[in-house]
Amino acid sequence: MTKKILILTMASKRKKYCVAGIDIDTNEFIRLVDNKYPESNGLALHQMMDEHGQFAQILDLVTVSNIVPAPTDIQPENYTICFETKFKIEVKFSPRLMSKIIQRCPVFPANAILGNKTHRVPLKDKDKITHSLEVLYVNKLRTYVNEEGKFKADFIFHNVAYSKFGVSDPEVFSGPLSAEWAYIVVSIPDMENKDKNMDAYYKCVAKIFIVD
User: What rounded mean pLDDT belongs to the chain?
Assistant: First the structure.
């Protein structure tokens, strides 16, 4: 199977990258995962290289071949890539086009984020999860390092304050940031490869696009 994907995230994932974006033919979210190393689920940098040695980046439109649907209960958007998978970079988009790009994203109810109004989904509610990716237009965004040394994000979405969201956007790791307005990609990691003692699925901000 071949897909044309507009890349929205290359989030940090156990020394690899969680690559997700929009299937521009169906306007559905898609996440690429490695079929060889399910324990990490992310992609290594060399797996995102085209035939000319160029690496795919955020907001690149890429054609990706030899991918296979691999939905999980928590991440129905997943497709696996294999050794034969090839990236072809078609065009690079500007962040200034985010207002138009977001119009192609799936639309979900604005009274919640990934199922509720908190930073976590309790295990008892996991059957209510129908998708694991959303793109949001938020204001009063700020990222910070909490007392445990982890990057977190607080923001307002449709007049509701949200807090304690994890942050996996590697561009934020250089230091805290704040923005009056921003587009963010929010994701729910799959727990199959995580600590079995966890009591919930914890949401994270996988990418931040600050609005100038």
Answer: 88
Residues lower than pLDDT 50 in the chain: 39, 193
Q: Which residues, 6+ apart, have CB-to-CB distance to 149 below 8 Å?
A: none
CA distance linking residue 131 with residue 148, whole number of Å: 29
Q: Which residues pair with 92 in a beta bridge?
A: 60
> For residues 6 and 29, what is the distance between their CA atoms, to the nearest angstrom?
10
Please, which residues have CB within 8 angstroms of residue 127's CB and are 6 or more apart in sequence?
Answer: none
Distance CA 78, CA 115 (A): 19
Domains, the chain: 3-94 (2.40.50), 97-210 (no CATH)
DSSP string, 95-155: GGGHHHHGGGSPP--TT-BTTBSSSEEEGGGGGG---SEEEEEEEEEEEEE-TTS-EEEEE
Q: pLDDT tens-digit profile of 2-51? A: 999 999 999 877 678 889 999 999 999 999 988 775 545 678 778 888 88
Q: Tell me how far apart the alpha carbons of residues 208 and 189 are, in angstroms, rounded to a whole number.
A: 17
pTM: 0.91
CB 137 within 8 A of CB 101: no
pLDDT of the residue at 193: 46
Question: What pLDDT score was predicted for residue 121?
Answer: 93
